[in-house]
Amino acid sequence: MIIRSIRDVAASVHGRRKDLAMSQAELAAKAGVSRKWIYEFEAGKPTAEFGRLLRVIDALGLELGVELRSGDDRLGRGDTVNLDDLLDEYRRR
Questions:
Q1: Where do the structural domains in the chain lie, given as residue ranges?
Q2: What is the pLDDT of residues 26-44, one digit of tens each?
């Protein structure tokens, strides 16, 4: 799935939670966040603390990835990029 907005992430979280027949309270407990936070996030809260979001994604058994758009060669690295190497480079800057 391509994520283009926080609403896309919220829809993914909501859908996965429902697929697992998990309540908001159960997910909140598993992820270490409040049930209110889950409710507000799924309802489309326009901001979310990234660390909490990562804990929720992990609790649902999901992964969040970052990829270059096809045809985007602004980095001057050709058609393929090793994202681990790229992240290491960005962290050193």
A1: 6-59
A2: 999 999 999 999 999 999 8
